């Protein structure tokens, strides 16, 4: 299966930036005035600091307290994390996006919206806008050579099932099916998205949306049928 998977992409972007090259750098936007300098561009430097930003799992100002609160919740529920064996499943992941038909690692304008995952030897950690949250691993399974499943509970999600299917295991690219149960409404929400292992991410182009001194809107990415991709055959 080709990584780009263009046949499954439906492009419905409302805002379209005209791409252009400047000194061999591909830009989608370059705008500046006396107040800010906003640029959206593809960074081809495999050692770019932005690769480090999207895969930074260190605790910042409020992260330690957020993480501690999530562990305290588990302990209060008598859920004590135990050491896990993940087989060959990678322990660090960052989000992928498709823009104008090309697959990118995306460095967002505002990292509040940036999603990433880290496994320790005993917990599953989600990084989202509120910081890192530890989830208790009820069960971990390797369903086949390319498919893995976690059953989790946390302060945010009392019951959650995440099934990960590699669409290209050699390149570390997988589709995540995130099934969340809401006990209050008795409803199930399903989300599908693409991620890449931190180990392999530098093999994928890096799309950067950054601005000095002022926050900007995020890009509107191609609408992709990840659900269909998840159900199709994958490469090993």
Written description of the protein model:
There is one protein chain. The protein is mainly β and 236 residues long. The chain has one domain. The chain has three helices and 15 strands. The chain has helices spanning 49-54, 63-76, 226-231; strands at residues 9-10, 20-22, 25-32, 37-43, 92-99, 102-107, 116-119, 123-128, 131-142, 147-153, 159-168, 173-182, 187-197, 206-212, 223-224. The strands form two sheets. It has an eight-stranded antiparallel barrel. β9 and β10 form a beta hairpin. Mean pLDDT is 88; it is low at 1-16.
| H/E topology pattern | EEEEHHEEEEEEEEEEEH
Gyration radius, rounded: 19 Å
Note the overall shape. Answer: globular
Q: Which residue ranges are poorly predicted, with pLDDT under 50 across at least 5 consecutive positions?
A: 1-16
- Tally the helices: 3
Estimated helix fraction: 10-25%
**Mean pLDDT value:** 88
Structural class: mainly beta
Name the strands of the widest sheet in spatial order.
Answer: 5-7-8-9-10-11-12-13
Beta-strand portion reads 35-45%
Task: Give structural attributes.
disordered N terminus, 15 strands, 236 residues, 3 helices, eight-stranded antiparallel barrel, mainly beta, two-stranded antiparallel ribbon
Topology:
Blueprint: E1 9-10, E2 20-22, E3 25-32, E4 37-43, H1 49-54, H2 63-76, E5 92-99, E6 102-107, E7 116-119, E8 123-128, E9 131-142, E10 147-153, E11 159-168, E12 173-182, E13 187-197, E14 206-212, E15 223-224, H3 226-231
